[in-house]
């Protein structure tokens, strides 16, 4: 099973993806984690994306697709992938469909975590205070949230028209959201 966890930054996608990895053995393909790992490695790719992420801008489709494609064999061996933070644009969604079709696979479900923007801002401010992660500062978050609302939210009709979209209230406790996701995947 391949699924996409869909929602704005800080909606809880990473938390729920980790739970699904532990419970189902799937591979989490988190573009944010992959990009942060590239930055930490000091690689050429990491140096290229570091400034982009610190400004809250979106990394190019080409770079993100390259990262995802490199991890697909691992996900296939595990029985499925959880896409977290990808796709962000219609071009990425279409590229993912083509990539998976070429491998005899597809996206099975898209789980949208519905959340409140103001609550997310408070969540990020708290997370930034704890971690100091540069891409979690409230100002960068506002840029990322605006980019999500402008570029990524329009993907909802794309997946809805394919009959793959399910919506889950993302404002509940971690356990309540997890239960709703499990119900949506049955």
Automatic annotation (TrEMBL):
Which region ranges are annotated with the description NMP? 30-59
Single Gene Ontology BP annotation: AMP salvage
Report the superkingdom from the record: Bacteria
Database matches in SUPFAM superfamilies:
P-loop containing nucleoside triphosphate hydrolases
The domain-related comment in the record is:
Consists of three domains, a large central CORE domain and two small peripheral domains, NMPbind and LID, which undergo movements during catalysis. The LID domain closes over the site of phosphoryl transfer upon ATP binding. Assembling and dissambling the active center during each catalytic cycle provides an effective means to prevent ATP hydrolysis.
Q: What does this protein do?
A: Catalyzes the reversible transfer of the terminal phosphate group between ATP and AMP. Plays an important role in cellular energy homeostasis and in adenine nucleotide metabolism.
Q: Which family does it belong to?
A: Belongs to the adenylate kinase family.
Write down what this protein is called: Adenylate kinase
User: What is the gene called?
Assistant: adk
């Amino acid at each position: 099973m391949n699924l996409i966890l869909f929602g704005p930054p800080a909606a809880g996608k990473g938390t729920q993806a980790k739970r699904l990895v532990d419970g189902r053995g799937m591979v989490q393909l988190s573009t944010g984690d992959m990009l942060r790992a590239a930055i930490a490695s000091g690689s050429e790719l990491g140096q290229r994306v570091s400034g982009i992420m610190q400004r809250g801008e979106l990394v190019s489709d080409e770079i993100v697709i390259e990262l995802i494609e490199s991890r697909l064999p691992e996900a296939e061996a595990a029985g499925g992938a959880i896409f977290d933070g990808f796709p962000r644009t219609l071009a990425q969604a279409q590229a993912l469909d083509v990539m998976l079709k070429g491998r005899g696979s597809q996206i099975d479900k898209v789980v949208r975590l519905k959340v409140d923007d103001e609550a997310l801002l408070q969540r990020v401010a708290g997370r930034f205070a704890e971690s100091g992660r540069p891409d979690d500062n409230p100002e960068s978050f506002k840029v990322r949230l605006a980019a999500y609302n402008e570029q990524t939210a329009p993907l909802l009709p794309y997946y809805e028209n394919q009959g793959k979209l399910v919506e889950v209230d993302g404002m509940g406790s971690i356990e309540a959201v997890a239960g709703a996701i499990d119900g949506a995947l049955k």
